């Protein structure tokens, strides 16, 4: 797998909360035909990565040219379509039978994609997980390699089929709960799991299947320092079902976890990319609006710098939002907005800060209990 060279451009401004280390600092430019494994940095270690086989570690999925596309369900183009003659005087019954035959062939096509090698490898891994001495080094290496490549091939493509993923999850659970947990959370050489891939591809039907397995480690960070929840900031939500799946994911994870590189949260990343829908979802699920990154910046400061007026208004509408917080340079959201020439946002902030200041002394000076005590 080819490795991206380190960018030579000077570092971005510290509040430009981009996905540093992802695809050379510009994740959005990733190609439709490239594997997601190539879009993540591999400069840092990751926890909970799948145990390495002896001597050699598999580094991600094979190159795109080596990946076989998923078979299209139903008869192949080179085959004659099945002909089902309708019973005499019962054309409706004939159509129904033809539909049943087509559904059976679709089922059979999906079953054919359940690789016997993958199932055998899972059974071998179950022996290893139960007893570390059950396999030789060579057997463990073969089982690990097969599981990693086969699972990532079928679950991590941009066009991964949710039904195919579901059937594999059923098979893994049938082997054992340990194998299910192991395979679902297995990571490639860059620390990416199937959940990282499916979120970054905005393949939310597959995301739902993974979450429904009940064993997904949703807070696991890849080697670039980002969890699947953080990657939602770059995913396009196309339907209400996608929104529901995102909410399901957010409710399962730590919304205030910080990326390892600069201490950014999912909220900060969503704000920096102008994702009002994701910001709204994060706030609805309880994201802390006042978390500060490694430089002391908040999500509100980020919205001010990038001129996201609607997002700034949404953040200020949160009762807990503290517009007076300062970063390590002593800058507040107001000074950041003024420096960036965002006068409308600055006006909103000025009104909010005046409101906070006017209520503070009243709560202290007009305390009935303290007045009565003095008398």
Automatic annotation (TrEMBL):
Residues 28-43 have a biased composition (Polar residues). This is KN motif and ankyrin repeat domain-containing protein 2. Residues 1-111 are annotated as: Disordered. ANK repeats lie at residues 190-215, 262-294. SMART domains: ANK. InterPro entries: Ankyrin_rpt, Ankyrin_rpt-contain_sf, KANK1-4. PROSITE patterns: ANK_REP_REGION, ANK_REPEAT. Residues 44-53, 101-110 have a biased composition (Acidic residues). SUPFAM superfamilies: Ankyrin repeat. The keyword RNA-binding does not apply. The gene is KANK2. It comes from Erinaceus europaeus (Western European hedgehog). It holds the Pfam family Ank_2. Keywords: ANK repeat. PANTHER family: KN MOTIF AND ANKYRIN REPEAT DOMAIN-CONTAINING, KN MOTIF AND ANKYRIN REPEAT DOMAIN-CONTAINING PROTEIN 2. Signal peptide: none annotated. It comes from the Eukaryota.
């Amino acid at each position: 797998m080819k490795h991206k060279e380190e960018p030579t451009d000077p570092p971005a401004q510290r509040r430009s909360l981009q996905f540093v280390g992802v695809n050379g600092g510009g994740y959005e430019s990733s190609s439709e035909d490239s594997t997601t494994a190539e879009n993540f940095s591999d400069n840092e270690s990751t926890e909970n990565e799948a145990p390495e086989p002896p001597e050699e570690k598999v580094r991600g999925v094979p190159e795109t040219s080596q990946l076989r596309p998923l078979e299209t369900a139903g008869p192949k183009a080179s085959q004659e379509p099945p002909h089902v003659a309708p019973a005499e005087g019962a054309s409706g019954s004939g159509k129904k039978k033809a539909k049943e035959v087509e559904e059976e062939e679709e089922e059979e096509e999906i079953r054919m994609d359940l690789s016997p090698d993958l199932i055998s490898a899972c059974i071998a891994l179950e022996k290893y997980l139960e007893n570390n001495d059950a396999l030789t080094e060579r057997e463990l290496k073969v089982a690990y390699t097969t599981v990693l490549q086969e699972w990532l091939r079928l679950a991590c493509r941009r066009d991964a089929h949710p039904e195919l993923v579901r059937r594999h999850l059923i098979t893994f659970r049938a082997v054992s709960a340990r194998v299910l947990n192991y395979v679902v959370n297995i990571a490639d050489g860059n620390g990416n799991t199937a959940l990282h891939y499916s979120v970054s591809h905005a393949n939310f039907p597959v995301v739902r299947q993974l979450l429904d397995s009940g064993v997904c480690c949703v807070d696991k960070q890849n080697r670039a320092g980002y969890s699947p929840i953080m990657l939602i900031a770059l995913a396009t939500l196309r339907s209400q079902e996608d929104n529901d799946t995102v909410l399901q994911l957010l409710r399962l994870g730590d919304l205030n976890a910080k990326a390892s590189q600069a201490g950014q949260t999912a909220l900060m990343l969503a704000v920096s990319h102008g994702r009002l829908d994701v910001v709204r979802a994060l706030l609805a699920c309880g994201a802390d609006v006042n978390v500060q990154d490694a430089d002391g910046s908040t999500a509100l400061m980020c919205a001010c710098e990038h001129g996201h007026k609607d997002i700034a208004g949404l953040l200020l509408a949160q009762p807990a939002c503290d517009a007076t917080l300062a970063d390590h340079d002593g800058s507040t959201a107001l000074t950041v907005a003024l420096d960036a020439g965002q006068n409308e946002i600055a006006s909103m902030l000025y009104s909010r800060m005046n409101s906070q200041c006017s209520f503070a002394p009243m709560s202290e000076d007009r305390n009935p209990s303290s007045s009565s005590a003095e008398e």
